[in-house]
Amino acid sequence: MVASSVNAILRVIEEMHRHLDQELTINDMARTAMFSKFHFTRVFSEVTGTSPRRFLSALRLQEAKGLLLTTELTVADISSQVGYSSVGTFSSRFKACVGVSPSRFREVRGNVRELDLDPADHRASTHRISLRGRLVLPGDRPIGPVFVGLFPSSIPQGRPARYLVADGPGPFELHHLPEGDWHVLAHSIPYSGLSASGGDDHGTRNALSVGRRGPVTMQVGVRPMPVDILLRPADPWDPPVLLAVPGDAAGWKSAA
Hints:
Structural class: alpha+beta
Number of strands: 8
Order of helices and strands: HHHHHHHEEEEEHEEE
Strand order of the largest sheet: 3-2-5-6-8
Distance between the termini: 36 Å
Shape: globular
Helix content: 25-40%
Strand content: 15-25%
Number of helices: 8
C-alpha cells in the first residue's frame, strides 16, 4: 500500500477520533481522504482489514470502555457521548463486541474471568481438529501474556470459537476446533502494562503487540498446517481490541 493512501486513511481515523459523538457518513470520510466514495471504501478496507463503519463503531466502543472504567457517567450518558441515540442499541452492540454488558464490564473493572464460547458444543463431537503454531515476539518487544483466539473475521471482536492465553511467546495449540475458514488473531500486553492497568489496557496502543494469520481452513480428517504468528507493535490503523479477555494474569486459562 502506497504511503499516500495510508496517510489519507490516517487522516480519516484522526477525524473519527475527533467526532465519536457525531454522525460521520461515508461521503464525509471520503472527502477527508480526498478520494471518491468507492475508492475510499476499498482502500480503507485494504489498510485496516475492515470497513469504515465497523472501524468507527470499534473506536466508539473502545472509548466507551475507557469511560466505563474511569468515570461515573451513566451507561446512558456514555452511549450518547460515543454517538449512540439509543442506549439499548449501544448496550447490545457493546455486549456483542466486548463479550459482556456495559454494566457488567464496569462492575468487574474489565477483569472478565472467562469468555462465553460458541453455544454449539464442539467438544461433544467425535471429530477432533487441532491447530498448532508458534507465537513470535521480536526481542525489542516487552514480554507479556498472549491472547490467541479463533475468529470468523480478521478483527478481534465478538465471541471467539476457541481461545487460550499463553504465558508469553512460544508454541501454542488450540483443540476441538469447528470446521470452516477462521482467522487466528493474537495480541499481547506486557506484564508492566497489566499491573499498571489492573489486568488489561482495554484496547489502548500502549505497548500493545498484535498478530494474525488467516483465513485458515479447518476440515475434519485434515490436519491444518502449523501457523507462526509474528507479534508486532499495533499501528494506528489496526482496529481496536474490543474483546474483554479473561482478567487477572494469574487466573487466565485455556478454553480450547
